[in-house]
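QUALITY CONTROL LOG
STEP: pairwise intake check
CHECKER ROLE: data steward
CRITERIA: each record must contain a sequence immediately followed by its structure tokens, with no blank fields

ENTRY 1 OF 2
RESULT FIELD BELOW
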Amino acid sequence: MASYDKPEVVERDVKDKEHEEDDKPIVVERDVKDKEHKEDDKPEVAERDVKDKEHKEDDKEEGKGGFLEKVKDFIHDIGEKIEGAIGFGKPTADVTGLHVNSINLEKAEFVIEILIKNPNPVPIPLIDINYLIESDGRKLISGLIPDAGTLKAHGEETVKIPVTLIYDDIKNTYADIKPGSIIPYRIKVDLLVDVPVFGRITLPLEKTGEIPIPYKPDIDIEKIKFDRFSFEETVAVLHLKLENKNDFDLGLNDLDYEVWLCDESIGSVDLQKSANLVKNGITYIDIPITFRPKDFGSALWDMIRGKGTGYSMKGNINVDTPFGAMKLPITKEGGTTRIKKNKEDGGDDDDDDDEE
């Protein structure tokens, strides 16, 4: 019986040993998983370290920027204190006017006046003056005036910039700008000055307004009416027709021209009273004249018979405009008019029959 029981013990031992072998992989697997968890934890720590480092770098940059701002503020404060203590300051400037010296059919000459004030205790140089005149964003003229002078200490100076606009240049460049029109302008001026403490600074200025592109009036002798007729001396009245083709009125205040009848000069004529030539309109004026018909030769008989009489006119008219005084030329070549006598001189005084 004793020998029969031994195999059972051996079998149990073998089974127990198998169970022990089965248990070992469980422990190993748990150790592997624990090791994997530890490996997964490492990137989180590393990532946190990187972020902390980035925050430190940002703080450093912010600290650096803040430092620069503090330095700038400090320098600005020092500059203001020096300015207050020594009395240095920025100059001021303003466009005080634009004065037309002359204007005619060819060009306009005017002067831009700029008042500059220097608050500093020392003279300062006006290095450059840059100017530009434009119309609706289109350049008309520009220029540079170098070494423009010196501004005296604690004083003010009026700087004058002469400008000439050539109308042909403008009309050739911009076809839509017509004679007789008014165009807007904008003047831009940059003054470059050298100021102690501040260094070189630019003072920008602007002014707007309007300038004309003038057009000469058309002139005709509608008729010549005799007040007193004789061969030795005849007193007559020229009925003049003037057409103003400009977009602005012309205040006629003087005439300076000569008249020819039948190729014979009857001399210059005088304007007895001023007249207003309305814009884009026709105005009639009467001008008295005196001449000697016997000097006209055979053409005298054509005049007496009321036939067409040739005439020419050449000279200038002086007018006032919203832009200043102008001297405009007037010419008329190869015109024809009729001479009308009063009834007492044997003529018909009906004006309606004489106008053409």
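ENTRY 2 OF 2
RESULT FIELD BELOW
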Amino acid sequence: MACIIDKFSDDESDLELSGSTLDALKSFYAERDARAEQFAKLQAEAEERHALNVKLSMDAFTEDWNESQFWYSDETATFLAKQLLADATPTTSIAVISAPSVFVQLKNLLNSDAYKDKPKPKLTLLEHDNRFAVFADEFVFYDFAQPLKLPSHLKGAFDRVIVDPPFLSEDCQTKAALTVRWMLKSEETKGEKPKIIACTGERMETLVTEKLYKSYGLRTTTFEPKHARGLSNEFYCYANFEVKPDEGAGAETPEGKGWTLRELGWKEKEGAATAAAAAA
């Protein structure tokens, strides 16, 4: 046995990490420590802002375009959040899937004076970016590639959902829709259709309205979401409910315009009408 141990020790003494391997290890540990430090900083900032009743900001969460992260403008995120909160009760449950800027505005609204005496619904954020774990129990890690790999208590638990799938592919859209259907309460449970908002690219329109969410009555709305840093793809908002204009808001604001639901095939009809008018 001693002989074997001595031989092992001799072999072990010959093992040396190459310079490139050492550099890679140092880089790995440096990145790990930086992520831990950033997480602690974000968590402390979120807790401090909540305690001081200070608005949260998406500026703390830098967009990562490689992860297809494109935050909404504050105006868009706030408007969408208001629609999710409209007529909510303490028993209302709202899920935000891959739309963290809307979740942040939901938090801001519920913490504002305007909502001080209003019911506080339950919020849940499903997100792939672990930086948002600073929201503790309201955060659930989400990978669209595994659409049902979620805590079992989320099944059939939500009255309202907003979803913004990270990629403009049929696979991503379909899996995100599977998550939405799995999480929503049934009509039998609610006595009414749950509210759904889906924000995604224009080229997903037929898939969204005529296949994935057809049974829920989703249609293209007249509201056009805006992104903080712009977006090259044409972006639509789809929903299964209308929003009446707020007469007390500015006529050019999203609240002042509200939104209506477009008919299926609206684009072709508008195109035909435009062509006919031009030919007349």
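INTAKE CHECK: passed for both entries
DESCRIPTIVE NOTE, ENTRY 2: The radius of gyration is 24 Å.
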